């Protein structure tokens, strides 16, 4: 049975966004939302009938707002707005992003501050439920006046125009997809076209998806770090709670606690804990893992706070407030754009320290007795030499993606919209960064697992041993002569992306922080 998400006057959660975007949850408008929609529509109808021009209802838009539009041309005004703003270009945006965008626009409509009719909102919910996904393109949004072009492509589908992907993924005309689902295209009336396209929903949807993915990846990065500390004969003493408490960052404490739990009962760690060990300090990439991972975690939770505020917002211009309609600037994407850029920065840095831990395994001068490149027969075999090249290439790309989009602004609409957020661009590059971090951490896990095998007969901890078994059973064999490496990397990437690495650990030691 498909999950269900009820869109009502209250805010959605990140998990609800993920449920609709990725899991195909059925979407239903709640009773309070229907009441709020009807109430706001009645206000718009009164203002539309009045002789005084009201922006968004009886005027043009943007730099053309000075023109008063007569009553008999207002339906055409709404159609023209949507058609002209559906000006995206480039590759198709991912289905999950478009579904998240549609859901969040519906959430704003449900607040009763936009003035669309209940039946228009209901059609948007029905598209989500029937798996009809409008084609949205990579380029077109400046992240101010919201994600205009992406949302316009979705509004176009409500009108029965443009192209969509049906539930099976086939590209079909919107009119055909609606007819096949028993749905009737909407005839937009005053204010509705503008209300359907004027929001931060695309960038916010991508932020919600990234928060969900990065929370998992931060725990996975702790698993990878623990495996690297163990495989490189590092100490777990530096992760002790009393040492972390004297610098009380919550993310750092959580990451260090994870490392302590992951390394508990490790025969490898115990083997060099005694007085004969002449190691004074581990390298920064091992010793400072909680500080880097923890700083990233705290930044992620700040982003989640911003996302929560935005999920509770009604983003439109103008908005219905009481019995009046007012212009505002709440569509500006700056708050969302900033945290999207913040997350790209910490994503790059977590990947950077992961790559450094991996590289230490491969250098015989630093890996404490392991074969060069963890190769079966060094010289004949190259081992995991080029896996680190792959990591390095990704990390270099992530550093470029960490360059903030939100510091840029290009004026538009004849200088009426003279400062924009570029939040959509920030969100697009963050999606690529999250994918890159997934791959970098997967290669560290794969490398550390081989090193732990090579430490035999010393036994790894119960938690890290579970990860090694998962890889060996999941298409990532252990040490041996060189073989085609790319399929093994991809298998490990999927184990990280799916959460399987974290899941097997938590089956052994309980839930990670």
From TrEMBL:
EC number(s) per entry: 4.3.1.3
InterPro entries found in the cross-reference section: Aromatic_Lyase, Fumarase/histidase_N, HutH, L-Aspartase-like, Phe/His_NH3-lyase_AS
Membrane-spanning ranges: none
Organism: Nocardioides psychrotolerans
GO biological process, one term: L-histidine catabolic process to glutamate and formamide
PANTHER family in the cross-refs: HISTIDINE AMMONIA-LYASE
Lineage top rank: taxon: Bacteria
Listed name of the protein: Histidine ammonia-lyase
Catalytic activities: L-histidine = trans-urocanate + NH4(+)
Predominant location: cytoplasm
């Amino acid at each position: 049975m498909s999950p269900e998400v009820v869109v009502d006057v209250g805010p959605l959660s990140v998990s609800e966004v993920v449920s609709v975007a990725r899991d195909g949850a059925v979407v239903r408008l709640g009773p309070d939302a229907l009441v709020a929609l009807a109430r706001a529509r009645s206000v718009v109808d009164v203002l539309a009938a009045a002789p005084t021009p009201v922006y968004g209802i009886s005027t043009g838009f943007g730099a053309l707002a000075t023109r008063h539009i007569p009553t008999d041309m207002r339906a055409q005004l709404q159609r023209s707005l949507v058609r002209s703003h559906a000006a995206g270009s480039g590759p198709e945006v991912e289905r999950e992003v478009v579904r998240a965008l549609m859901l969040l626009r519906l959430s704003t409509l449900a607040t009763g501050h936009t003035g669309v009719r209940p039946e228009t909102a209901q059609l948007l919910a029905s598209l989500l439920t029937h798996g009809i996904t409008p084609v949205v393109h990579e380029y077109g949004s400046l992240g101010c006046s919201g994600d205009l072009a992406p949302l316009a492509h979705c509004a176009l589908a409500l009108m029965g125009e443009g192209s969509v992907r049906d539930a099976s993924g086939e590209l079909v005309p919107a009119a055909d997809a609606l007819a096949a689902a028993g749905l009737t295209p909407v005839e937009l009336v005053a204010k509705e076209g503008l209300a359907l396209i004027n929001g931060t929903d695309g960038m916010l949807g991508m932020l919600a998806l990234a928060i969900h993915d990065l929370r998992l990846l931060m725990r996975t990065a702790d698993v990878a770090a623990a495996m690297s500390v163990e495989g490189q004969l590092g100490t777990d003493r530096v992760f002790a709670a009393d040492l972390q408490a004297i610098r009380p960052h919550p993310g750092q404490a959580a990451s260090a606690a994870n490392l302590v739990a992951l390394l508990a009962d490790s025969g490898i760690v115990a083997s060099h804990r005694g007085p004969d060990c002449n190691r004074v300090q581990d390298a920064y990439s091992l010793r400072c893992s909680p500080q880097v991972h923890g700083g990233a975690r705290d930044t992620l939770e700040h982003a989640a706070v911003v996302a929560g505020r935005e999920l509770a917002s009604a983003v439109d211009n103008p908005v219905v407030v009481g019995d009046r309609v007012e212009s505002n600037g709440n569509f500006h994407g700056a708050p969302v754009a900033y945290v999207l850029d913040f997350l790209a920065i910490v994503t790059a840095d977590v990947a950077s320290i992961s790559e450094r831990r991996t590289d230490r395994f491969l250098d015989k001068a630093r890996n404490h007795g392991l074969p060069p490149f963890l190769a079966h027969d060094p010289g004949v075999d190259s081992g995991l030499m080029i896996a680190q090249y792959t990591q390095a290439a990704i990390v270099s790309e992530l550093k470029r993606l960490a360059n903030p989009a939100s510091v840029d602004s290009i004026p538009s609409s004849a200088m009426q919209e003279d400062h924009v957020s570029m939040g959509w661009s920030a969100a697009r590059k963050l999606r690529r960064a999250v994918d890159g971090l997934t791959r970098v951490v997967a290669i560290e896990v794969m490398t550390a697992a081989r090193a732990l095998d090579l430490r035999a007969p010393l036994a790894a901890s119960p938690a890290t041993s579970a990860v090694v078994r998962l890889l060996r059973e999941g298409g990532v064999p252990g040490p041996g002569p060189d073989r085609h490496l790319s399929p093994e990397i991809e298998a490990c990437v999927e184990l990280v992306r799916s959460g399987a690495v974290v899941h097997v650990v938590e089956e052994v030691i309980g839930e990670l922080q």
